[in-house]
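Human: If only I could read backbone structure tokens as easily as an amino acid sequence. Take your time, and here it is.
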Amino acid sequence: MSEKAQKWILEGERLKERSKRLPLLAPIECELEIYEKYIKNVPKGKNVLVLGATPEPRDLAIKNGLICYALDISKGMLDKYTKLMEFKDNPNNIIKEGNWLEMNFSENFFDVAMGDASFNNLATKEDNEQLIRVLKKVIQKEGYIVLRSLEFPKIDPIPIEELVSLYR
């Protein structure tokens, strides 16, 4: 029995109207407030990384005067979710297709990185740890990483001290 690779379905009401993006698909208001709390600590004109295509944190970054880089492995998702953005035509809305584990931004390029359930999209604990190491290089030493959801299904959890150490 051979398995055929399944493609992302990039259609449907939830991809056409932002108002139809409901939890768990979209962050709720109190979660957006957490993103914004950290975004407001970053001086205007600085760089923000969004892991994935999620429009809500991208709009928050741009609304607060930051340059937002959205990085996703799927150009189709980037294109679809960009259409839902309030600031989709803003020059500070920069989209990049690519693998998070292989991003090649300069060291200390970002002041904050945000992820909307991003770590759930990686297959292994090793991939999650690799992403933390990559983020450690591209985020300023005093920068922030803000995650909406962090889960490690079917593996031993990483103690918080070790996770912080991997990040720092």
